[in-house]
Amino acid sequence: MRDHVRRALISVFDKSGVEELAKGLHEAGYEIVSSSGTANYLKEHGLSVREIADLSGYPHILGGRVKTLHPSVLGGILARRDFDADLADVEKWNIPLIDVVVCNLYPFEEVAKRKADLGDLIENIDIGGVTLIRAAAKNYRYVTIVTDPRDYGTVIEEIKSLGNVSIKTRQRLALKALAATASYDSIIHFALSKAMKEEDLFPDVYPVSLKKAASLRYGENPYQRAALYAQPLQKLPFKQLGGSELSYNNILDAEAAVKGILLLGDRTGCVIIKHTTPCGMAIGKDLPSAYEGALACDPLSAYGGIIGLTREVDKDTAVKLASKFYEIIVAPGFSTEAVEAFKEKRPNLRLISFDLSKRDELRLTKTAFGFLAQEDVMAPDPDFEGGEWTGERRPELKDDALVAWKAAALAKSNAIALAKDGATVAIASGFTSRVDAVEWAVRHAGQKAKGSVLASDGFFPFPDSIEIAARADIALILQPGGSKRDEEVKEACIKHRIPMLVTKMRAFRH
Ligand SMILES: NC(=O)c1ncn([C@@H]2O[C@H](COP(=O)(O)O)[C@@H](O)[C@H]2O)c1NC=O
């Protein structure tokens, strides 16, 4: 390879620390070439800089849309230093070789967060910078690409001590740079899809970029390392107002509580979660009465659980909740007095204020088979008035029917929920046979099963569950229907005079 002046191209939007880096490079004998804004900045800091226009023979044109996009710039980055044909081209076209590229991009993400219009978004799409970064990352075997100011120190240290940036560091920086451009493009795709009101929920390619939002102490178990990632343009929908740090399992449990809150919709209600499974759900005239109702379903399981509330938590509710041990309280908000009351009595209790309006349309779940994508929609209310009934209609049981149905939808399949007086009295969750779920629910409810509403998240494959319900004096059954033996199930209900509402929609949770 021919000898050449060592050269660094610096073109940065975020100029923090770049003068120190340029100074280090200059001291190590590098010529600095920069785009105009960066060149001016460095000159103001007393550095001698060559303008990119001087190297390319072209000024910035189209109001800065084209600044560094030129063969004499990109050729100097992309030429393979041990490839005769590349070197011959470089020689022939008098292209100066570039050994270090320092570049960070137009702040598209920040602009998009400010809810910019489509025109602003478009003007903030960096083209030249991405090209410089990709070119340098592609040629990492000869060229160093630096995209993160936090790496300036390492680069200068290695150049000073080793004479060049080591191949190991160049590889690491190239991968980091490629992750930066990939993430940048996915953020642009996301923001432009929204601004253009793109309606295709399931495009052939779904670019996702994830940024680390928090390091977690460990995962589900201490032998599993873990972290929380978020999509860059989506602000985290929650704020933690108090208590210990959130763990991996806390996040899963809190999410189940949020689902419970969303299922209850605009009603004043409470859900209690244990290990992502509901062990109580109720609606009431106010939060304390809804909480009492939910708690009475299974007080033993509720200990150390997660409480989800559908309304802002006030001081009275806080005082009541603080008298027992829970891990997390999730609600759309907390009054200042409520936060104080919790802090005084339960300083470690995690308080999560969750913005229910910030919801994704799509839920992505990573599996060993690939990412599953589905619309994030909650089980709708059963059609109590217009639905398909067997036997007499029971309008007075509407609230109980709703709570039983929503609790069954939140519980894992096979799920059976029993509700009475606006509160569940049993929630059987995660059973592998439906009849066992019915049997457990009735046993758990004991005397309270009598007169309650039973909801099933899936159809009854046999009429055996109806026989158990009849023995327990169940007042009303809700189930989706759809079994081969629907007629036998109906006949059993008629025989035992239990009215049944066929919801015609399944409410599985797996
Ligand atoms: N148009 C181009 O050729 C171009 N080349 C580099 N940039 C970006 O311009 C910024 C630096 O510009 P300046 O040095 O003029 O402040 C950097 O964020 C860099 O990524 C460009 N801007 C947008 O594409």
TrEMBL record:
Keyword Secreted annotated: no
Sections of the chain in a coiled coil: none
Entry-linked Pfam families: AICARFT_IMPCHas (PF01808), MGS (PF02142)
Catalytic activity: IMP + H2O = 5-formamido-1-(5-phospho-D-ribosyl)imidazole-4-carboxamide; (6R)-10-formyltetrahydrofolate + 5-amino-1-(5-phospho-beta-D-ribosyl)imidazole-4-carboxamide = 5-formamido-1-(5-phospho-D-ribosyl)imidazole-4-carboxamide + (6S)-5,6,7,8-tetrahydrofolate
Domain MGS-like: start-end pairs: 1-147
HAMAP family reported for this sequence: PurH
Family: Belongs to the PurH family.
Protein name: Bifunctional purine biosynthesis protein PurH
Source organism of the structure: Acetomicrobium flavidum
